[in-house]
Amino acid sequence: MKTWLKWLAAVAVLGLVAAVLVYWFVYNKPHRDYEKASPEFELTAEELYLAFIDNRNEAESKYNGRVLQITGQISDIEEIEDMVIVVFSFSEGLFGDEGVRCTMLENHSEKALSLQPGDEVLIKGFCTGFSGSDVILEFCSFP
Predict the structure, then answer these.
(1) What are 69-114's pLDDT values in tens digits?
(2) What is the CATH number of domain 41-141?
(3) In the chain, where are the structural domains located?
(4) CB 81 within 8 Å of CB 104
(5) Which residue of 12, 53, 88, 140 pairs with 99 in a disulfide if CB–CB is 3.0 to 4.6 A?
(6) pLDDT reported for residue 63
(7) How would you list the strands of the sheet with 67-73, edge to edge?
(8) Phi/psi of residue 91, each to 5°?
């Protein structure tokens, strides 16, 4: 066999081994525990919503991808299939209420469903951005 063909085969085998190892370590990387994460910002739900309404770019750079702890009065609790969403409404838009929507972790869903509109709550969650009408928090829990 020619020398260059042996080198090519060796490089291909090393590349395959490297690809398998990278896949293995990325796939098995531990996921962030949002329930135990410390909040980077503490503010009211209305302050968070107004930050995105007043200056979306500044708010996105400040809050997106961060764990936030918010307080406020619940406007509604939505149940969509297996998801429970706690809603804080601050204005009426073209497609309904606009505000902050918090998708609860499964082990906090039962407590969220027991709440009533008007209840004052403290919720911690991961900010994923602004949908144009709502600030979205995911992986939410009651601290």
Answers:
(1) 999 999 999 999 889 999 999 888 777 789 999 999 999 999 999 9
(2) 2.40.50.140
(3) 1-30, 41-141
(4) no
(5) 88
(6) 95
(7) 41-44, 67-73, 120-130, 134-141, 96-104, 83-93, 76-80
(8) -160, 165
